[in-house]
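In this section we walk through a basic example: taking a raw amino acid sequence and producing a predicted 3D structure, encoded as discrete structure tokens. The instruction is simple. Fold the sequence below.
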Amino acid sequence: MNLPHSTYYYKPKKQLLDETELTCRIEAIIEGFPGYGYRRVTKELHRQGILANHKKVLRIMRQRGLIRKPRRRWIRTTNSNHRYRIYPNLVQNLAVTGPNQVWVSDITYISIQSAFVYLAVILDLFSRKAVGYAISRNIDTALSLAALIMAIVNRKPPRGIIHHSDQGVQYAAHDYVDILLEHGFLISMARKGNPYDNAAAESFMKTLKTEEVYLWEYRTLADVQLRLPYFIEQVYNHKRLHSSLGYLPPVEFEELFLKTHKPCPIALTKAV
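The resulting token sequence is shown next.
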């Protein structure tokens, strides 16, 4: 048959499980990542060396009741009715080619007994990695500043990096802008009433709510301070598969990039 010996003796590296074993593996993945849909579950099975078709995974998840419907609530966290300077959008149609070129930021609310607490987060737009965050009872400039300072300390960004946010007073206030200018940031803001201008940050908040916040009944600020850092750092940054990163976790995506690319000065270009 003109086949080489290596082909004749080839055995696939991935294993094919029967449906009972596959169901157990799927349930184990969902237990660790309750917000995963069938696509991410399929990709995680592939990463574990298991052959699985996404249609079969979807069927099993439907049969076992493993497909979750996210709860939807909305509370306004952006107050753009202020007299501070509004900066133009610098990231629209921008091609980001490496880490520490663009950071995006946002604030969301988290319900506890008879009150709300607030979370401010900063992501690296290239890898979607959460590089800074802060939790507070108050939605003010001190909250957004704490997240920014954490990101600066962790990443030591080069001058010329873009900081992108909405037009909220927490990001436009003088105290916040002064820190950005002191560290050489270029300031960018989303257009008013256009959530697509800060889609990456909005997507992170949606993931946080559906895969962590809605699954736990937080009672106190201490509960939030205990759970959220673990989810952000250990689950989201290190384990959760991200569809826009080729189904890799943010930390793994950055490490893979840095292994194959030498650090270079910031060079941002408009996407064609």
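Looking at the output, two observations stand out. Strands lie at 15-16, 50-51, 94-95, 102-112, 115-124, 130-136, 162-165, 186-189, 269-270. The first strand starts at residue 15 and ends at 16. In the next section we compare this with other chains.
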